[in-house]
Amino acid sequence: MYSQKAILLIRNITPMHVGSGNELGIVDLPIQREGHTDFPKIEASSLKGSLREAFENKLGEDNLDIHLVFGYDEDADANQKIKTILNNTEYAGAVSFSDARILLFPVKTPKGVFAWITCPYALKRFDEDLKIAGLKKLNLPKELNNIQNNPETCIVASNNLLINHKMILEEYSFTASVDTNFAQNLYNYLKIDDLNNKLVIVSDEIFTSFVKLSTEIITRTKINNSTGTVKEGALFNEEYLPAESVLYLLVFTAPIFNTVKSNFTDDLSVMKFIKDNLPAYIQIGGNATLGKGIVKANFMEV
């Protein structure tokens, strides 16, 4: 059904808040997380809305191809221009998105400002998703099992990250081994500048701790214009996935599910439409008026 597959890479340019609702903990408005790992994620429904909006901003809300590919939206067809063209407005979209998964998470380090950390579980999952997308699989480092058994150790991409043969991430110190080949291998997929100098692989447990405890927490407030003090009930904390976080998602396409086809001939033409018209920079999540959630998006080609 959805037979064409690709991987879309997302790199945060500014902090992103895709919320999961209100909670009673220290953070009033946390970000979305996976239930089984506590890793940050972006729900597919949130992504689909943001990506459709990006296409509408580029091509216009009343673009027939957008309604055929993403599904008919009467709110984006106020004059019913599209409805008069289509024989039927009850049909499925021809594009499907998975949840976005975290692959690289930025952590402060005394050398190089920050490092991108990842872990064996995230890499193995990424490798499996490459296979689903029909892309060439990674050559994972043989030492992955060693750092799982010894969480005080890590694999780094470059000696330039080390201080006295130790890798320092925030206030934690790790015994490091250097593997330049894997960083180059991963760069071939991600095409992220400086990855060869900033990649660090830590154990699953250490990675989980950083992605839970090293997100950005911003306190928001609103001032009462009359009293000049904080408005009652307007003081709250929001969690953000920091800038430089790297996530990815699977994109699937199918033939158009409507008798009206426009210029689409098959699932390949739908995927081409997505790839050709995806803006390089899009906005995902809340607080767009504060400049939050701006990401660089590009399809992975290997």
Distance between the termini: 24 Å
Q: Can you count the helices?
A: 9
Specify the oligomeric state: single chain
Structural class: alpha+beta
- Low-pLDDT segments, ≥5 res: none
Radius of gyration: 22 Å
Shape: flat
Main sheet characteristics? 13 strands, mixed
Helix content: 25-40%
From N to C, what is the helix and strand string? EEHHHEEEHHEEEEHHEHEEEHEE
How many strands?
A: 15
The fraction of residues in strands falls at 15-25%
Mean pLDDT level: 93
Structural write-up:
With 302 residues, the chain is an alpha+beta fold. The protein is built from nine helices and 15 strands. The protein has helices spanning 44-59, 64-70, 81-85, 120-132, 144-149, 180-190, 195-198, 204-213, 267-277; strands at 4-12, 41-42, 95-97, 100-108, 114-118, 153-156, 162-163, 166-169, 172-178, 199-201, 216-220, 236-240, 246-253, 281-283, 294-299. The strands form two sheets. Strands 1, 2, 3, 4, 5, 6, 7, 8, 9, 10, 13, 14 and 15 form a 13-stranded mixed β-sheet that branches. Strands 11-12 form a two-stranded antiparallel sheet. The model has no long low-confidence stretch (mean pLDDT 93).
Give a brief outline of the structure.
With about 300 residues, this protein is of the alpha+beta class. Helices cover about 25% and strands about 25% of the residues.
Set down the secondary structure blueprint.
Blueprint: E1 4-12, E2 41-42, H1 44-59, H2 64-70, H3 81-85, E3 95-97, E4 100-108, E5 114-118, H4 120-132, H5 144-149, E6 153-156, E7 162-163, E8 166-169, E9 172-178, H6 180-190, H7 195-198, E10 199-201, H8 204-213, E11 216-220, E12 236-240, E13 246-253, H9 267-277, E14 281-283, E15 294-299
Parallel strand pairs: 5-10, 6-9
Antiparallel strand pairs: 1-13, 1-15, 2-4, 3-13, 4-5, 4-13, 6-10, 7-8, 8-9, 11-12, 14-15
